[in-house]
Write a structure and sequence with these properties.
This is C-type lectin domain family 4 member e. Keywords: Disulfide bond, Membrane, Transmembrane, Transmembrane helix. This protein is α+β, with helices and mostly antiparallel strands. The chain is built from 4 helices and 14 strands. The chain has 2 domains: about 120 residues, Hepatocyte Growth Factor; about 140 residues, Mannose-Binding Protein A, subunit A (Mannose-Binding Protein A, Chain A, Roll). Strand 7 and strand 8 form a beta hairpin. Helix 1 packs parallel to helix 2. The chain binds calcium ion (CA) (2 copies).
Length: about 260
């Protein structure tokens, strides 16, 4: 794995780090023998957060901090929080944006702490048919945002016709990406590929997965799912009526809503 600092970062702090990055890059390539290229990007807005992976330690720079994080947690390290004053390095998982009820995330309120997250190369995206790349805190997806409302069944079929699928938000990172695009780019209640059509109360994503432990405490809007009128087996965002806190709502599969496809 090669670690680079993101080219868009140009402030003085980052320029100093760039000279350090090269040395650490060589070290990490030698240890890990992995040709993936990873950009290490600072969250300048303090919008992104991450879940801590373990105890903190002292590292002399953010790049060395991330290299040690990758070494200790090769499967799960995707970010770190670095304190510029104390040089404390706290390892983190995949970064994500705003989600309700996430209490254990880092960074904390200390202004000396900065979050850096790994950003992998963008996935292929054919933008000639209305798809485009969207990114939240290093998680990138090729998405089509609907301009009209349809029933769930039609949304699933429409995405399939475009060689894609209705969006699956099965991780914290993908859930925050879905919320972010639904809220910031569409500002509409938006369907995802999740339903309890087969067994009431047993929600299954379009890829066959159930709701994971990682997201089960964050996915639902307050009081949802409620299977209102005994007729709610499909799932959508709920910010048109109630903008905060963000969370999903079970809705009738017969009502027409906007949707997002992912290729
Ligand atoms: Ca239901
Ligand atoms: Ca509901």
């Amino acid at each position: 794995m090669k670690i680079y600092l993101h080219k868009e970062l140009w402030n003085v702090f980052i320029l100093v780090l760039l000279s350090v990055a090269f040395c650490v890059c060589i070290t990490v390539v030698g240890v890990i023998c992995d040709e993936r290229q990873v950009y290490l990007r600072e969250d300048l807005s303090r919008f992104c957060r991450t879940l801590p992976l373990g105890e903190s330690w002292i590292s002399l720079s953010p790049v060395k901090c991330f290299a040690a994080c990758i070494s200790r947690f090769p499967e799960t390290c995707r970010s770190m929080v670095y304190n510029q004053v104390t040089h404390t390095c706290t390892p983190g998982g995949t970064a994500f944006g705003t989600l309700q009820n996430v209490q254990t995330s880092i960074p904390k309120t200390n202004l000396n702490e900065k979050l850096f997250y790994a950003e992998f190369a963008n996935p292929a995206c054919n933008t000639s048919n209305g798809f485009a790349l969207y990114d939240v805190c290093g998680t990138t997806a090729c998405l089509y945002l609907s301009t009209s409302k349809v029933k769930y069944e039609i949304a699933v079929a429409s995405c399939a016709e475009m060689n894609s699928n209705l969006i699956i938000a099965n991780t914290l990172a993908r859930l925050s990406l879905f919320f972010h695009v639904s809220l910031s780019y569409m500002n509409k209640d938006t369907l995802c590929w999740l339903s309890d059509n087969v067994m009431e109360g047993y929600f299954v994503w379009g890829n066959g997965e159930t709701i994971s432990d990682e997201i089960k405490d964050y996915i639902w809007h307050n009081g949802q799912p409620d299977n209102y009128n005994n007729d709610e087996n499909c799932v959508a965002t709920r910010h048109e009526v109630d903008p905060k806190p963000y969370g999903l709502n079970d809705v009738s599969c017969h009502i027409q809503l906007h949707f997002i496809c992912e290729s």
